[in-house]
Design brief:
CATH architecture: 3-Layer(aba) Sandwich
Strand order of the largest sheet: 1-2-3-4-5-7-6
Number of domains: 1
Largest sheet: 7 strands, mixed
Organism: Pseudomonas sessilinigenes
Family: Belongs to the acetyltransferase family. RimJ subfamily.
Shape: globular
Protein name: GNAT family N-acetyltransferase
Pfam families: Acetyltransf_3 (PF13302)
Number of helices: 4
Structural class: alpha+beta
Number of strands: 7
Helix content: 25-40%
Keywords: Acyltransferase, Transferase
Order of helices and strands: EHHEEEHEHEE
């Protein structure tokens, strides 16, 4: 795998991000709920980037673009940051259709966990995956996440209910 970096989105990323989201829209919407149609415009993506920056400044959430040798190949985020007392967040990620199966998600998860535990001083990261999403389950388990639950019929997509597996990962700095 070429050099992989996670970087916070900036307004300079607008064209790359819009092209990435448009190219992968159908691929993503096959397994997660759709973004509003207004998102798929320069104004919509710019607004999302500004919101991501505001969320990071307020310690509510952290979004990152996944770039491989400069090319935008995915996104990863920490959302629903809870402070104080819990110091936890929820992990989410998506890799473009052309780039799956190459270890990109695992590498990005490793990088975001390091940032979460060292820089952001989070102590627990949670994640969810549908049981049939074997790739995501493998990424989480290979990244040190442990499964702690299974909720039945807890996620609706295209009128159908799906189960979710619940995972957690704790900071090694707390040992």
């Amino acid at each position: 795998m070429a050099h992989l970096l996670i970087v916070a989105p900036q307004l300079d990323d607008l064209n790359d991000l819009l092209a990435f989201e448009e190219e992968n829209r159908a691929f993503f919407e096959a397994s997660i709920n759709a973004r509003p149609p207004s998102y798929y415009s320069s104004e919509g993506v710019a607004q999302a980037i500004v919101q991501a920056q505001q969320d990071a400044e307020a310690d509510r959430g952290y979004q990152f673009l996944i770039r491989e040798s400069g090319l935008l190949v995915g996104r990863i985020n920490l959302h629903r940051v809870q402070r104080p007392y819990f110091n936890c967040a929820e992990l989410g990620y998506r890799v473009g259709a052309r780039f799956t199966g190459r270890g990109i998600a695992k590498s990005a998860v490793t990088q975001v966990l390091q940032r979460a535990f060292e820089e952001l001083r989070l102590s627990r990261i949670e994640a969810n995956a549908r049981p049939e999403n074997i790739g995501s389950v493998r990424v989480l388990e290979a990244s040190g996440f442990s499964r702690y639950g299974h909720s039945r019929r807890s996620f609706q997509l295209h009128g159908q209910w799906f189960d979710r597996l619940h995972y957690e990962c704790h900071s090694p700095l707390l040992s």
